[in-house]
Amino acid sequence: MNLADAEQFIFDKLRAGLSPTLHYHGLHHVRDVVESANRIAQGEGITDEESLALLHTAALFHDAGFLSTYRGHEEAGCVYVRQVLPDFDYNDRQIETICGMIMATRIPQTPHNKLEEILCDADLDYLGRTDFEPIAHSLFEELKVRDMVPDKTVWNQIQVSFLASHRYWTPTAIATRQAAKEQRLDALRALV
User: What is the dihedral of CA 147, 150, 155, 157, to 10 degrees?
Assistant: First the structure.
């Protein structure tokens, strides 16, 4: 596996190819998910070098499907990683492990193993962080541009429903993010 070159490759592709209207799903989100995945993996005691490299790769590529589509971007991302990762010396088993992690992030999340749980929690880490408001607003702007949400009132209702149905999977995320997420949910419920 040549992780360093794969990372440079996908950063270049995302920088050049993502729509500027992806206010939430931009390169900044990918970097945030990579950082969160590494932190959660450390909290979960993942030390195996290959597992960490596969998790890092999945975090880097988890939204690569946005290069070609908005809806169904996880499936498109898996098609993409199957095309490009062999060029970086990833084998079929490693690529399928990465695809499993990417597909697990599809809403509603469906992780089937520890690495998939970590990526799911990293992808929605912001739900229990102090920077929730500006990040949630960037998602509102992204959806509004696509006529997927009409106004703030409907958006707040969507957020209440989403936060109420969301769960963190790893003990690390539950311990560090759950309480703040629940406070955010209570505050949003007061608005709708």
Answer: -120
Taking the alpha carbons at both ends of the chain, their separation in whole angstroms is 49
What is the rounded distance in angstroms from the CA atom of residue 57 to the CA atom of residue 95?
A: 9
Distance CA 126, CA 29 (A): 10
CA distance 123 to 168: 10
Q: Look up the pTM and report it.
A: 0.96
Q: What is the dihedral of CA 16, 20, 23, 27, to 10 degrees?
A: 10
Helix (H, G, I), strand (E, B) or coil at 188: helix
Decide if 59 contacts 122 (C-beta within 8 A). yes
Whether the ω angle into residue 150 lies within 30 degrees of 0, i.e. cis, is: no
Contacts of 162 (CB under 8 A, 6+ apart): none
Distance, CA of 109 to chain centre: 11
Residue type present at position 105: T
The pLDDT, as a whole number, for residue 80 is 98
pLDDT digits (tens, 9 = 90+) for 15-60: 999 999 999 999 999 999 999 999 999 999 999 999 999 999 999 9
Q: Which residue has the tokens 């690569």?
A: 64
